[in-house]
Amino acid sequence: MTTLRSIALLLGFIGLTPLSAQAATIYAGNYADQGGSSNWSGAYLYTYKVTLARDGILDFAGFIGKTQVGSTGSVVLGIYADDGGSAGALISATNPIFVDENLQRYESSFLNQVAVSAGEYWFGTSANVSILYSGISAGSDSLDYVIHAYDGTLPDPAPAMSSMSLGPQTFYAAVTVAPEPSLGALPLALAGLIGTASFRRRQRRLRAGAGITLA
After folding, report:
1. Which of 8, 81, 90, 162 is the most buried (most CB within 10 A)?
2. Per DSSP, what are the bridge partners of residue 176?
3. What is the set of domains in the chain, with CATH numbers?
């Protein structure tokens, strides 16, 4: 009975306290390079629908892309709340990001690293020059757009916008999520308890003839 109670207590403890866990980063949007190339004009606001799988804290935003050959520019990124199927209130944005003609991953921290819940969001981007983003032109992902005079910020809330469909784009908002329990140490812990219990039972049997009881 003591052994069973001990094992039950251990299992309950493991269920509440991770034996080995670390905070993780997940992405609303597509972190992996989607390939392809789409030319997006400057002086527009674009919002791209993304999904966040778990609650967490906003960390940074990023994309893969470049400017046209021989040019440089500035891009600002952000995340909008969903408002009935379109971008609504601006949750957080980045500082402007310098972009050149080298195709690479660009990232910047969110200015307000606030808590967000799992659900639908809109990734916002605006630039002062045309940007070649890594992404697929044809598809069923949702993109809204509107003319927007670039000033290094994103409008809040998002204005009324036109809509279109396109393929997956390499836009993402990185979110830090709470660690999940790891049960990697469970077999060793149970083996230790079971081994101890077996030893105590053997000791009881050996000492029973001499009238000795092992407490």
Report:
1. 90
2. 25, 57
3. 24-177 (2.60.120.820)
In this structure, what DSSP letter does residue 110 have?
B
Q: What is the DSSP letter of 22?
A: -
Cα–Cα distance between 116 and 85 in angstroms, integer?
Answer: 18
Which DSSP string do the residues of 26-66 spell out, in sequence order? EEEE--S---S-EEE-SSEEEEEEEEE-S-EEEEEEEEEEE
CA–CA distance, 166 with 92 (Å, rounded to integer): 24
pTM equals 0.76
162's tokens: 């036109």
Count Cβ neighbours within 10 Å for each residue of 102-138 and write b for 16 or more, e otherwise.
eeeebebebeeeeebeeeebbbbbbbbbebbbbbbee
The per-residue pLDDT for range 54-82, each reduced to its tens digit, is 999 999 999 999 999 999 999 999 999 99
Give the pLDDT confidence of 150-184 residue by residue, as tens digits. Answer: 999 999 999 999 999 999 999 999 999 998 665 55
Helix (H) or strand (E) holding 122: strand 119-127
- Report whether 143 contacts 163 (CB < 8 A): yes
